[in-house]
């Protein structure tokens, strides 16, 4: 046999979003996606599919050894592609890629995609992702950020810029909010403007080689990893372009191999001026740290040092019964272990500010201190204005304070993000369960009963309890729902309660929300039973008021009867979910929607 025969690389089909629209705004986002494909190409023959497609047809055409699905991205420019027939070619292993911040509000959409596509193993670019998605952390590995060494290198630029300040500075970046003004007021700085990703002005950002050369011409460049203590690309780009990294000390940064005054400089608001003064007064030491940082990046954090997806592919091929794959650390290798050994992947022990506030709020809520708990959850929104865990908990607080309308509005917003803004097939099961419970607290029991099966494949213990409440309050004589199917994964974690404890808790909430009849009925209902109590009578199911609601419900029912499920909107037939607008999108070409909107407004008035 000829030993010189070249073994072909395994073929990877990468279902990547269409990121091309970012070329006219934040062009560096497009560069990041191209660098991901370049990294994968070090081990795979990569085929990129970034258009709507049929999975079966793609597999027939390219015969992949592995398929990778990008999901959960949060961008106003990039377009999420539609992929059908993912239940075919079951012999081809599939992986999900959570290509987003760990705290992103598209995580529920990501988990929905994974369920829809039959994917049970995932990679994330964020080292903190396992802490933000604990329900899947056993099968969630990290494929961390990296640099392209052809771009981020030593260009031999003269060091003419003392400090370069680049990156966003708002609530998500508390370290930068403290440190950047102190630096800017004391040293000559090259300051990059702040523009939103989707802004046309973002096209003026330095990116690619021009950005790398600007870093290379700088002595020191500060950055941080957000309130989440993350490792972002800048942590690698700055020393990779041979500038001295000045940053916040976090567990994730230390896991990447950064050591204070050895290959980077750790500072905070108390010592930043003192330390920079020292560095500028000792140029030899500054150069030593810069050179060591450069060596760290080019020996451990380039696209040639990210084999984790290839390692999973190789290990999975030979995986035996009773074995599983774990990761030795967020930047570490994947290895195979026996399940009985109880070994787990090593994740960064979190220092995320929002997680700490959520835990503090949960403890206060457990003690009945609702106002103080609300304050903790609201402070989370100062970091990330769209954080779903904080909004969900605020909805729970609103229920406990008897404000069903406020709770309902918050839950509608959460469901809309996943279903309308992201476009998932179904919502987070816990958010959906509490949406139905908020409806009941508003006195809309019939509406909750009618909507409970709108997402028939959705299953979760909290959703089962919501259905249990509907069955017991409705007294329809039917069987109280049991658990069916395996739980859909949720981004939310709730206190552990037995069914009886939970029903007492919810009966108290009904009392707070001025639904004493329902609370009394639930309080006397036998757990798991469906018979009426002697003391209480079944409430009469009031028909939903308003012809608009009846119209929406009738149209939705007709869609089901006519077997037009593929064109049916993925949102409930309610005005707050813009049901008709989503229906129009399914039926009417974009060019004709303007005229239809005008007709709709004339008939129904402006949208709610």
From TrEMBL:
It holds the Pfam family Glyco_trans_1_2. InterPro entries: TPR-like_helical_dom_sf, YkvP/CgeB_Glyco_trans-like. Residues 202-306 form the Spore protein YkvP/CgeB glycosyl transferase-like domain. It comes from the Bacteria. This is Spore protein YkvP/CgeB glycosyl transferase-like domain-containing protein.
